[in-house]
Amino acid sequence: MSNPVYLALDLPQLRDAQELAGKVKAHIGGIKLGLEFFCAHGAHGIHTMASVGLPIFLDLKLHDIPNTVARAMQAIHVLEPAIVTVHASGGRAMMEDAKAAAGEHTRVVGVTTLTSLDDRDLERTGVSGSTHDQVLRLAELAQAAGLDGIVCSGQEVKSVHDQWHDGFFVVPGLRPAGTASGDQKRVVTPRQARDDGASVLVIGRPISRAENPLAAALEIESTL
Ligand SMILES: O=C(O)c1cc(=O)[nH]c(=O)n1[C@@H]1O[C@H](COP(=O)(O)O)[C@@H](O)[C@H]1O
């Protein structure tokens, strides 16, 4: 089985991102580049990071009317990302159009409820019920819209897997035992998420902010 760990390179400097990816590339399966990276370095940054030779997960969390999202999808075709995110709460038509506009080799996954939110936070946004139920609801919508899978926390991935057997499940909010959660509220260990059916394990700070990122990546790999 290929390495399921995608390293979230949430770093402001392109050179630092390149250096870190180069250092740990033998112990990860891909690179996740998000909003911070894309706003700072754009398409040039994506092309630069593609030279590391690992699949690129372009995490832009698109969320707009269907036409706008579809056109954004078309514009990022040329970057050939392996995975792209849209917000599942953007609705079925938005997700259908996003998938139709994406490249043939790009997996489109729907972000459900962010791993930084707990039940109380969700309630404050006007959504009733638990984060768990909301994730399952949005997963069903994403599946009906023809997406390849969803993003959810490790606390829901088992239930989602039970209702969507061949889905592609991206799980962030991962912390090796004994490490700080920071702003993440729905957290599990990388091993737990993998055992519960995660296809991709998104890991950022536990590697990128570690004193020794290579040792941290090796340690995580050894637990999988
Ligand atoms: O779509 C994501 O990747 C994502 C969704 C989510 O619900 N929670 C979440 O943390 N992420 C991303 O996953 C990464 C997690 O980073 P760390 O908390 O440093 O491991 C960040 O780049 C987030 O943008």
From TrEMBL:
One Pfam assignment: OMPdecase
Active-site residues annotated for this sequence: D59, K61, D64
Entry annotated with the keyword Lyase: yes
Single biological process term from Gene Ontology: 'de novo' UMP biosynthetic process
Boundaries of every Orotidine 5'-phosphate decarboxylase domain copy: 4-220
Pathway: Pyrimidine metabolism; UMP biosynthesis via de novo pathway; UMP from orotate: step 2/2
EC top class, as a word: lyase
Catalyzed reactions: orotidine 5'-phosphate + H(+) = UMP + CO2
HAMAP family, per database record: OMPdecase_type1_B (MF_01200_B)
Protein name: Orotidine 5'-phosphate decarboxylase
Organism expressing this protein natively: Qipengyuania algicida
